[in-house]
Structures are given as structure tokens and as C-alpha cells.
């Protein structure tokens, strides 16, 4: 399986649009891995997680054929994960798209936003099928088996993490979330993972409730080890960074590499053999 890290920033991106902080200035000057767009990943080019406002740029940068997407899975409705307006671009009149509907799996907040936005453009028109998911319910998608799990993120929305089995590999897509809820740990503890994707929005700050800091990432890895959840050769990748943490890609790599954790960057491709 190939996992593409299309974007690796939190809501504001790095550099943030209107920001004059030191990290944003450095990122603008350095370019490359210091530039981070809003978070999304693509698995084998047919399963996409989240649809952020930078999807157009991801498509152009990586030469993606978005018509290969069969299943589109959402973690939650925050605007760095869902830009419903651009889903309308698949409707007749905007795209000569293929016949197949893209199957969308998400919580109710995401589905309502998508439906309302597409209703302004003539409705779904057979281009999307919307399915509401429930935590812990095993779903057999066209491209993978997935199980949504509760996150600790926004108290007014059921934000979800995903356990994904695809191409004989098991992945935990673990954000946005602070330290995982007990019920999520209870479900996860006898699973074997080949890859875990975690977030580190909060950097060195002393906060881990709705996003993780460095400490929470390291303790999550420790918990994976205690539970024996990592298959031999399994990887952990951190993503979803905020400029507020004031940590460059080089800083983050120095922090996480000694713990065997990879720091994602925009356009990073990982192959799980
Ligand atoms: Zn986010
Ligand atoms: Zn900034
Ligand atoms: Zn969020």
C-alpha cells in the first residue's frame, strides 16, 4: 500500500495566511518541507481521508487523478478537513467526471454540510453517495475495511479516528485528537498495526485535551508498545502541525527521530510493502 501525505498542517497552514511570526517568516524563506498545507492522506489513490481546502493544490502538485477515488472518509467537519464547496466541482457542468458515485463516509455534521452545499448546486446528482458512520461499526468499503473510533477533539461533534485494513496492512489514522478516549484504547489494545498516523499540533506546550503535544505522542507510542500493538517494522508518523508550536521540520525531526517516529511533510509518500 502507498500512503501519500498530501498536507501536514493544522487549520492555518504553515505559513499561516496573515501571520508574521518567526516560524512563518522562516518557512516562507526556506520553502520545501517547511511549507505545510491542510491535512489529508490518500491510500493507493482510491481511498482518501478528508477533503481540505488545499485539495486543488495537492492535485496539481502531485499529478493526482481524483477520479480514481472510490471512497472518501471524513474524520470531522472542521474546515481544515472539509471544504465541501470543492466537492461541487464533480457535479455536471463543472467536470466531465466518470459515472461512478464516490462513496462518502462521515459523521452527521460532515454529511449535512456536504448535502447543504451540493443542494445549492442541484444536489448530489448521482456523483456522491453519503453514508453516516457510527463509532465501532465495521464498514466494508470498496477499497478497504474501516472501523471509526471516537477521538478526543471537539465536544460538540463526534470526531472520529479510523482503523483501516487495506492490502493486507493495518493502519490507525489517529487525528484530530488529544489523548485517545479510554473506549478507543480498549478497542485498540488487541489490534496489530503496520502504521499509526498521529498528530502533534501542540508542540512543546502543556496541552493534550483536544490535540496532542510532543509528550502525548511519545506516551501514545509507549502505550502501543505496552499493548504489543506494533507489528515488526511498523511505523509511526506524526503530522498536523501548527505554526504556533514554532517548530521547523528540522526541529521536529530532531525531536522525534530518536524515538523512531517519522515527521511527515507535504508530498511524502510511504510504501507499506
Ligand atoms: Zn485539523
Ligand atoms: Zn505564524
Ligand atoms: Zn479539528
From TrEMBL:
Reaction equations catalysed: 3',5'-cyclic CMP + H2O = CMP + H(+); 3',5'-cyclic UMP + H2O = UMP + H(+)
Domain Metallo-beta-lactamase per the UniProt entry, residue ranges: 62-223
Record-level Gene Ontology MF annotations: lyase activity
Keywords: Lyase
Keyword Lyase appears in the UniProt entry: yes
Record-linked SUPFAM superfamilies: Metallo-hydrolase/oxidoreductase
Gene3D superfamilies in UniProt: Ribonuclease Z/Hydroxyacylglutathione hydrolase-like
Physiological role: Counteracts the endogenous Pycsar antiviral defense system. Phosphodiesterase that enables metal-dependent hydrolysis of host cyclic nucleotide Pycsar defense signals such as cCMP and cUMP.
Protein name: Carbon-phosphorus lyase
Classification of source organism: Bacteria, Bacillati, Bacillota, Bacilli, Bacillales
